Structure formats: structure tokens, C-alpha cells
Known about the structure:
Elements: E1 9-14, H1 18-30, E2 36-42, E3 72-76, E4 80-84, E5 89-92, E6 97-99, E7 102-105, E8 109-111, E9 124-126, H2 130-140, E10 145-149, H3 153-164, E11 168-173, H4 185-197, E12 201-204, E13 208-213, E14 219-224, E15 229-231, E16 234-237, E17 241-243, H5 246-250, E18 261-263, E19 274-276, E20 281-283, H6 291-306, E21 321-325, E22 328-334, E23 344-351, E24 356-363, E25 369-375, H7 381-386, H8 396-400, E26 416-418, E27 423-424, H9 425-435, H10 440-447, H11 457-470, H12 487-497, H13 502-509, H14 518-528, H15 538-542, E28 552-553, E29 559-561, H16 572-585, E30 588-591, E31 597-602, H17 607-616, E32 629-634, H18 648-659, E33 668-673, E34 687-692, E35 695-700, E36 712-718, H19 720-737, H20 744-750, H21 754-762, H22 770-783, H23 787-792, H24 795-798, E37 817-820, E38 823-826, H25 829-832
Parallel strand pairs: 1-2, 1-7, 2-3, 7-19, 9-16, 10-11, 10-16, 11-12, 18-20, 32-33, 33-34
Antiparallel strand pairs: 4-5, 5-6, 8-17, 13-14, 14-15, 21-22, 22-25, 23-24, 24-25, 26-27, 28-29, 29-31, 30-31, 34-35, 35-36, 37-38
Amino acid sequence: MGADSTTDRRLVVAGHGPAAHRLVEALRARDAAGTWTITVIGEEPRPAYDRVALTTHLEGADLAHPAHGPEVAVRTGERVTAIDRAARTVATSAGDAVPYDALVLATGSAPFVPPVPGADLPGVFVYRTIDDLDAIRAYAAGKTTGAVVGGGLLGLEAARALQGLGLRSGVVEVAPWLMPRQLDEGGGAMLRRHIEGLGMAVHAGVPIRALEAGGDGAVRRVVLDDGTVVDAEVVVISAGIRPRDELARGCGLPVGERGGVAVDGTCRTEDPAIWAVGECASVEGTVYGLVGPCFSMAEVVADRLLSDASTAVFEGADMSTKLKLMGVDVASFGDPFAGPEQGALGVTYTDPVAGVYKRLVVSDDAQTLLGGVLVGDAESYGTLRAYVGGGLPGPPEQMLFGGTEAAGGDLPGATVICSCNNVTAEDIRCAIAEHSLTDVPGVKDCTRAGTSCGSCVPLVKRILDAELTAAGIEVSKAICEHFDYSRAELFDIIRGGGVTSFTQLVEEHGTGRGCDICKPAVASILASLGNGHILEGEQAALQDTNDHFLANLQKNGTYSVVPRVPGGEITPEKLIVIGEVARDFGLYTKITGGQRIDLFGARVEQLPEIWRRLVEAGFESGHAYGKALRTVKSCVGSTWCRYGVQDSAAMAIRLELRYRGLRAPHKLKSAVSGCARECAEAQSKDFGVIATENGWNLYLGGNGGMRPRHADLFATDLTDDELIRYIDRFLMFYIRTADRLQRTASWLESLDGGLDYLREVIVDDRLGICAELDAAMARHVASYSDEWRDTLDDPERLRRFVSFVNAPRTRDPSIAFAVERDQIKPLPLEVKR
């Protein structure tokens, strides 16, 4: 019943979720003749909104989808209650009978509440709509504990939401590991480590016996079958969904074996006038719960409604997914569960220290990629997913470590780039060519790629860059879709235009509200240019996680305290103070490889007390939490060592005190060795110095880590003043021109001309900017102020240092320790139970 033979047809859409919204928009975009008049009936009091980002509603995000045009009648707060197939009308909760020529059921799904005693107690909620979140937020005020029943995608989002409301939350999952539908056992175990590291208890593999009430009749605890008791004044049930197919059942339409309105590959029911899309539909026996398949169904129905000749068919879906859960990258793609019985082999890499788990599933000849799981590091997700079902461009182990990048121009046209919207590489290439697109926002507008979960945006950009390069067009280096500028260009805009805030920058030079890419990058630039304390006003909201509390978050929810010890040189009096602080606050003490003393195990509310003691003793922040200078390591040099030829300790201290607090695109490390024996390991640092009989040799662009790089010899036999002048210029030129999160090693390699070009810039003044670089460093040195001292002097900044926003004096009871080698260590959460 398409549009070929009739006009002015009446379409009724029952439900107004994301699938319904996509259907209406697709139909409006393609129905230039106005064939269909559309009525949408949605039971929520608001139009369609983005359920994928539901949790961000608690953070103030606007989730509303763009409104339909005036030609679409949207009836909110009203529900379709029955279907009269013979009369082709639907009855609504408002008492109306609305006629239709075509009816699309898009009623979505309802949360599944397990039949356990106590599930109806006050304080027990589901997690499905904005109204649900508002009710949870209101009820949680004044409460301290919460638990989520369900360790899937939405359950972990709910746990994050409870934690954000100031509750000590835990997760209860009946399956043996978290996210069992997306992750294998190894990936689930690594994700659990990350979640527990954030202070959340995880109980997996044990069914729930009951939810029990307290004296006031409201829920107080979750009791598991093994007797474990989980304290919870707020319980959120997120144990799966069930398709809402009651309308189909009520009018005699068939439903699937496991529920859902039974439809064929065209999303049509056995009644030719009725269709079903989204989570309420059972397409040939399968119900899909991800947004991508739901959108694909909507597109199919839109085509079918407009043409009887349409061949559009829903052909299943790519169930790959990538997301960031509580700061942890998680991804699965292809078939992550295939094993030897399917002729598959697994290639696994696990780094428990870094919290990384990667597993690729390949054919038994290791030539074809079948699927995989990534936890803790999902940077290669876009590349790997593009190769699923095809030949591997390199050995599996090389793919695991990102050794082979998918060049945008090399991907087969049929490769699905955006699984949410079923957009292929060829779709993107055609849109770029047809509409002369030159930026990612343009590609998103034309193809919808990257407009849902956003995980495919990096690969979309690579395809765009490849197409533009092939056409001889300069490739945009925009930092993100909110700014048409690279980080280096934004640096110049802020510096030259007197910009002092992110809001001013985005209003004058960008669009939208910013994102987790541009906000921290701009925060770093503002800090590099000395625009106020990083916790002052708007600056505080832009910072990366650790900067929020001027400390590094540890695996059990505590923080580390790292005072600056320039050159590793410290007086007995200061050593005594550190010992007293560690003793009085019960902290773990460690002398690091960078010649610092780190104190671990501080609760967030203890940080100001600890730092007050340290600041009074003359210590200042060691910036272990920031993208800034960490440390300048040194040997004892000529003062004590019989091989030393220069005073390396004095030079290390001079450098550290000069560059302390210098904010940069990435962390900075340095070292000074007093002779060629290189005890300080200067040649593995961002800038390293080695003494010679005639002065100092300067090495630039080294780093350790997963991909170590040996620094390059930049200049030899420098005087003290020459050495400092060149380091000044090197650092300021790096800060001005590097990309976000780019270490000096990769930045140096990316410079056209490499080390020789760098030498021309900061020695020969090829660009005529050396005076500017010198002045910029002079301003930094003159304006330096210790961040922790400034914080202690400001009551407003100190207000953030509490474990629970709604109970400032309450300590986090989930934090506990064991004793090993006479010092504390984090107590595993399973032991605490």
C-alpha cells in the first residue's frame, strides 16, 4: 500500500521514541508530494528524545530530537489503547478514534522486572525514561547507598548515575560477568576491575533472593542467594527489556515466540495496513535492542510506504558497539564469541596493570577477522570493525596494537562504517562527491553517520580525509565538529584574541556547547597562557578527570598525593614532614622512578588537610595529575660522583623550578645526567640533558611507555644560558603547535623536516618567533603560583573536596585497606563483602 496509486493517505504512528522519530523524518524527507498526512501519538509528556544518552539528562543535557515540521501532528501524553483493524482506527487514552490508512507500531519496550520479593517496595525504580531519572534524583536526596540490578549497558549507566547523585553504588548481575551480551569472560573480568576501581562493588554470577525493607517500609538491602547482603536505599532495576506488543495481541496480530510484533523482512505484519519498527518488532523471530537496527527498520518502512515497487528489506544488523562506561572504553564487534567449534581462533592480549584487555577472533588460518572485544583501550575499534569478514592487512598481533591503520581510501565500499544508521564507506564517498563535502559535520548531515553513538566519527574523518586528498583538496585539521580549527590554530586565536574562557571561544569561533575533545584541549591552552586557576569558575568544568581534584584517582576510589621534590633533592626536615603526614593519615608511601615520593590512599575529603600540612612545610604540587611538567630526574653529578663532569643536580632543580606548572598538550618528563654514563636516563625523556666537559648536550623528543622512543641529539656543548634558552623555545613551540594529547616524540616526528626544521625554528629563528617564545616562557615563570596553595586559600574551591555531595561530612564506607609489608594496600571489594 505505497504511494504509487493513492494520495492523501493517513499514517498513524503509535509511539514517539527514536525509531518513530526516524521514521517520520525519513518519510518527510522523501515524500516531496505530501502523499501522507502523519499523526504521531506518544504516551510520554514530551516528544522524542535521545535514549542513548539518557544518563546525561542528570547532568543537564538537552536530549530532545529536532522537532518535526508543522505538517506532522504530534500528540504527547496520549496512548493508543486499542486497534480496530476492520474499521482501521485506533482508540486513544483521550477517548478519540483516529483513522488510519497505514499504522506503524513503534511502542518500544518496557523494562523487565524480575519476579523477586520486594520488587514493588518504595525506593525501587526502573531506568527507562526521563521521568524515571527525575524520580530517582528526587528520591535519592539524602540517601547514601544504592544498587543496580543488571550489569548490562543500561545497568552500568544507571550505576554511574547513582554515583553521580552522591550514592555509594553497587552492581548485581546474575550472569558470571558484566555485559555478557557484548563481552567475553576476559573482557567482562577486565571491565569489572575498572568498575571496582571506581569504588563500586560488583556481585556477579549469583541470583537475587529478595529486596528487603527497612523499618520505614522502604527498600534497604538486596539479598543474594548465597547470603550476601548489599546495602541499598535506592535500587534501580535494569535487567533487560520486553517488547511492548500488547496492541498487537489485543487485535489478534501474531507475536514472536519471545514476544514482539511478528513482522517479515519488510517490517510488515500479517495485516497489510500495519507495520512495526524498533524494539516492539520481532523481525522473523528476532527482537533488536540497539538503536542502529531500529533506525534501519524505520528507513525500510519509509521506503515501503512511499512506493509499492520498493525493494527495501531489513537484512539484520551489525551488533557492534563502542562506548565509554564511567571513563572506560569498551567495544565489541563482529562475532566476539566464536570458538574452535566454528573454526575460529582467539588472539588475546591482557595488561592488568594498565587495565587493558584485547581479543581478536580470527579464522583458523588467521587470514580473516571474525570479531573481537576491546576493554580499556578501544582506539583501534573503527579500523578493526571495518575489516570484519575480510582479509586482515597484517598479522593479528599487529592489529591488536594498532600497527595497521585503515586508510579511509582503502576500505571496501560495502564496509559498514556507522552501524547505528547502516551507512557504508561507499555511502560516505558518494555523499562527499555529490555534495562537495569538506568537513565531518557536512558528512553527518548528509549521511547520518556519526549522529547516534558517535563511535564511528574517527573512521568517517579518515574516509573524508582520503577523499579530499585524492581530489587535491587541503584536508581540514579541525579539532572536533565544534571548531573548524586545529589545536594549534585555537592556541593562536586564544592568544591573539584575548579569549579568556571556553564560552567566549565557542560563541565567537565555534558552534554548539563543546565536547570531551575540545573542552579539555581548550582548558589546557587557557592554562598554558595563564588564564586563571584551573578550578576557578568555568575552568573547573573543562578539566580532565584528575584535574578536578588536583590528584590522581587510584583503583579503589582514593587519590595520590605527590609533592614536588625538585631533582630528587630533599632536606631531612621535609622528609620528616612527609613521614608524619603519611603516618597521621595512614597513607602508602612510595619512592618513584622519577625521584619523587608519592603518598597513596587519601580520601577526597582528606586532600585539603594533607596539602595544608605539606604547603606549610614548603612543598608544592608535583602536578602528577596534570598534562604538565612531571619531574626533572637527576643523578648527584659532579658534587658527589667521581665520574661527574657538571653539577647535574643543580641544573635539574633549576629546570624543574623554571618549568613547574607549565600546562602542555601532554605530560612532560625530563632528566639531567652528570656524565656520559647516563644514570638519570636522560635520553628517554621529552627533553634530556647530559653533561660534557664543555657544557651540556641537549636531547629532544624521547619517551618511555608502550612505544618507547630514543630522544634525538639536538645540540652539543651548550652553556647554561644556551641550554635553558633552547629548552624554553622547544617547550613553547611544542605547546603552541602540537595536537591535543600528542607527546613531544610523535610531535617531533610529525614536523615537516623533523629535527633539522626544529633547529632552524628555535636556533636560527627561521619563523621570526623566537622573541615571542622567549617572552611567553618569561611570562610563565613570572606568573607561576602553586595550585594547591591557591586552592587552600579559596573556600569556594574547597567545597568540591567531599565524597558525597549531599552528605559532605560522610566518609566513603566502601574504601578499605589491608596491610602488606607494613603499609596499606587497597582491599579488593570481594573481600570487603
